[in-house]
Amino acid sequence: MNKKNKILISACLLGCKVRYDGRDNLIDNDFIRHLQQQGRLIPVCPEQEGGLPTPRAAAEIQDKFPLRITSTDGEDVTPQFLSGAEKTLEIAQREGCCCALLKSRSPSCGNLEVYDGNFTGTLKAGSGATADELMRNGFPVYNERQLDQLIEFIELLDGCEPDTQRRAS
């Protein structure tokens, strides 16, 4: 495998307890473990990169244009989310990442949908601050529900035929 093709990954997906509630979102997948053993995964938590503590109040995107993200306690955390997005982009560029695997539905990392800003668990189409920043700068962004697509992308970059035996179930 080509070791140059590194993948930026939400740290919570690797079991790091960096979620807003101090927990993780560990994904149990052989292909991800294989990439980790090869040293190809670059873990990052954009919210921590932006200066937010763990644990922290949950946050949701209130407005997209201009971006406004608030926490459940009413604090405007937009500056921290934007700073985290910029720092995460810098990490991805510095490390030579080819793509990103980020946590779905997160106000930072969600790539297809995010919570609607009412803190009721309702989803809407859209992406988080970090996913937006990465995609604007040419990085393909996948979430943990898109492992099949990520695996196919990585195998093609590595010059391998896609191995359907390794696909996520």
Write structural notes for this entry.
The protein has helices at 30-37, 46-49, 78-95, 129-136, 147-157, and strands spanning 6-10, 41-44, 59-64, 67-71, 97-102, 113-115, 123-125, 141-143. With 169 residues, it is of the alpha/beta class. It has a domain at 6-56 and 84-104 and 128-166: Rossmann fold (3-Layer(aba) Sandwich). The strands form three sheets. Strands 2-1-5-8 form a four-stranded parallel sheet, with helices on both faces. The longest helix is centred in the middle third of the chain and has 18 residues, at 78-95. The protein is globular and about 50 Å long.
Give a quick precis of the structure.
29% of the residues lie in helices and 21% in strands. The chain has 169 residues and is an alpha/beta fold. It has a domain at 6-56 and 84-104 and 128-166: Rossmann fold.
Which short descriptors sum up this protein?
single chain; 169 residues; alpha/beta; Rossmann fold; 4-stranded parallel beta sheet; two-stranded antiparallel ribbon; 5 helices; 8 strands; 29% helix; globular
Task: Annotate the secondary structure layout.
Blueprint: E1 6-10, H1 30-37, E2 41-44, H2 46-49, E3 59-64, E4 67-71, H3 78-95, E5 97-102, E6 113-115, E7 123-125, H4 129-136, E8 141-143, H5 147-157
Helix pairs in contact: 3-4
